[in-house]
Design goal:
Elements: H1 19-27, E1 31-32, E2 34-39, E3 45-50, E4 53-57, E5 62-68, H2 72-80, E6 82-88, H3 93-98, E7 112-114, E8 121-123, E9 127-141, E10 144-156, E11 162-165, E12 168-171, E13 185-188, E14 199-200
Antiparallel strand pairs: 1-11, 2-3, 2-6, 4-5, 5-10, 6-9, 7-8, 9-10, 10-13, 11-12, 13-14
Bound molecules: flavin mononucleotide (FMN).
């Protein structure tokens, strides 16, 4: 057995539920960082930084994201029935900050191109993976909307994930963070739930 440092008893503080308590709780739960993107009905790209993304089902492959009900990206996702989830690598912190800033031309600040099948915004420099999704279901929950996405295909290349926790960004240690451009691989829907690699694509 590994020698784990024992937690000192008696230091935990009980807090009643509330906005600040909930924020504090979630800050103690680190996650990866995504930029969820969509295209509106006039062809304009939209996107926001989003950590509420998680796996839902393997067969069929599904994930979920929770977006504020006033988000313009959310409205484009629901209108067009599709969205992309860009997983940021540890060199993507500036992009995470851009996509969380209001009143900014976010797509002017990053390099992007359309994904292979659905033509959704793929952050080619800042993401080491992107998933194309079809909206399967959306459910209002408090001030957010939970959007379930059926994953159609993914583009991946080596890289280490950007993390967010304790109200700050961090890099996954032990792996080189920033991937090389031009090495992304596309895996179509039929093989998403298996681990087979797809055809190389220009990044
Ligand atoms: C690390 C981080 C994680 C975030 N996660 C979410 C999230 O899961 N859902 C959400 O609606 N907003 C999230 N936000 C906030 C949005 O990115 C931010 O409010 C953005 O400006 C919303 O853009 P929009 O108004 O164009 O939708 C997050 C922000 C940061 C910095």
């Amino acid at each position: 057995m590994t020698d784990m440092p024992a937690q000192e008893p008696g230091h935990a503080a009980w807090s009643a539920g509330g906005d600040a308590t909930f924020r504090e709780l979630m800050s103690l739960f680190p996650s990866g960082v995504t930029v969820v993107t969509a295209i509106d009905r006039t062809g304009v790209p939209l996107g926001l930084t989003c950590t509420s993304m998680c796996s839902v089902s393997l067969s069929p492959p599904m994930l979920l994201t929770c977006l504020h009900h006033r988000s313009s990206t959310l409205h484009a996702m629901l209108e067009r029935g599709s969205f992309a989830v860009n997983l940021l690598h540890s060199g993507g912190q500036a992009a995470a900050e851009v996509f969380a800033t209001a009143d900014l031309d976010r797509f002017a600040a990053v390099r992007w191109q359309p994904t292979p099948v659905r033509g959704l915004p793929w952050l080619t420099t800042d993401a080491h993976a992107v998933a194309e999704c079809e909206v399967a279901e959306a459910k209002a929950a408090g001030d957010h909307v939970v959007v379930f996405g059926h994953v159609d295909g993914v583009l991946t290349r080596p890289g280490s994930p950007l993390l967010y926790g304790l109200r700050s960004y961090a890099a996954w240690t032990g792996r080189d963070g920033t991937p090389t451009e031009g090495t992304a691989e596309w895996t179509p829907a039929s093989t998403v739930s298996s681990s087979s690699a797809g055809a190389p694509l220009a990044g």
